[in-house]
Task: structure prediction
Amino acid sequence: MISKLTLRLLVFNLLLVIFPVAALLFLDTYEKQLLTGMENSMVQQGRLVAASLRDSANLKGDGVLLLKNMEGRLDARIRIVDAGGRLLADSSTLGVRNSEEPVDKYSRSSAAVSAELPVNVREHWLYRAAVAPLNLIKAIFYPPAAPLASAEYYSGSSLDGPEIQSALDGYYGAFTRYSGGGQRSVTLYSALPVLSADGVSGAVLVSRSTYRILRDLYNLRLDMVQVVLFSLLAAVLLSLILARTITIPVKKLRDQAESFLDHRGRVKGAFRSLKNRDEIGDLSRALDGLSTDLLEYMSFMDGFSSDLSHELKNPVAAILNAAELGLDSDADSEDRARFLKIIRKEGGRIQRLIDDLREISQVDMKLAEDDSELLDLTALVSGYTEQKNAGLQGAPFRFESLSRDHLRVRGSADRLIQCLSNLMDNALSFSPRREDVLIRLEASGGMVHLSVLDRGPGIPEGNGEKIFDRFFTDRPAGLKDHHSGLGLSISRTIVQAYRGELVCRSRDGGGACFTVILPRI
Result:
């Protein structure tokens, strides 16, 4: 079954064929223009002859001599009649012309030319197939034409047609009749008066058949029908080729989209990129990347749910166990107080987890909502360090910049401060007393390096990437209850949103170094 897109392409390409079809229809107008030009030419020839015979005393003799002198220069049949309509001279009987078709001494006869052309172009199957609907349209929408008389009307020596009578009355006369000899053409007649001192002494009748024009038009029509036919075939072929390069890849993408999810709405697999080097190929690769990101996000959510269940399992179990023991009738007041402390402690742990989970769930939303702006990172970090020291005893944070210039990055001030705050709090929690946490800012190539350095126990071997995992913490047992293990994960998410990275290493001389690397503006 043909697709809708293929059908649209086919219709669009077929519409282009309207132009040669319109040209085919225009041939009727072209034919009328040719006939008008032919009539004007006949009138000019008739006027020249009539003007040459003006005031002639011997109309017959002068007419015969004039026609003989014009041998080879006429393209129409010219006859001269007197005032009574009697034929005095005829170019076809004087050797000037032998029919309604012109013959000059420099070209072959019309019969010889016709013999080399198709016997009847109108009988060609292609011509008939194309012209039949056009004739039907004409028959339906155009009024019927008046019947024409036969060109055999002037077979005798007396010429008394209406155009002759008009010329003998002193006016221009014209008439059209069917040509004889089985030709599918007409003959145009134009009559002009020959004037003398006494009035109208005779008339000049000029006639010419449209056979040659129509013969050329029929051949032209056949050629144009062939052009239309080839245009149709080309349109169909181009549509099929375009359909193969457009609709088939689109259908593949549609099939992949339909099979992307199972009946439960779960992702079954990623999109497969197409090899096309066009916009559809770009679309498939974009969908491939989108599906890969979606799979990674779903994997993240599955892992996050699993980790969250694991983290909540222990405090919930401790609360339930303490509550059960506290409700025991044998427990004294001191034990109940201890159980209540356990419940409060584990409840606080759950509350911290919930707060951190709310924070990490809103990070992506805040990053999308916050407008990035050009930030002076030197002033931002220096100012926040002073603010942080103001709320703590002993001013444990020390800021230094290794660049004389102010370093600028693009991002959100609130989000970068949130990232820096997490790193500073993490460093302070590991630092021994009376040991400063160093905040260092420097430029390296096209990047800005913001480092937070402490003198704590450092990064255990093999934990360089684990410390950024959700809920991971490598703290002493007494400190784990106050940290959920989400701070570093949040910080890395913020940095990656601004096309940067967050790395860590052990500091020379002991301690840890966390470095935020951002593109410099």
Q: What stands out?
A: The radius of gyration is 52 Å. DSSP finds 13 helices and 13 strands in the chain.
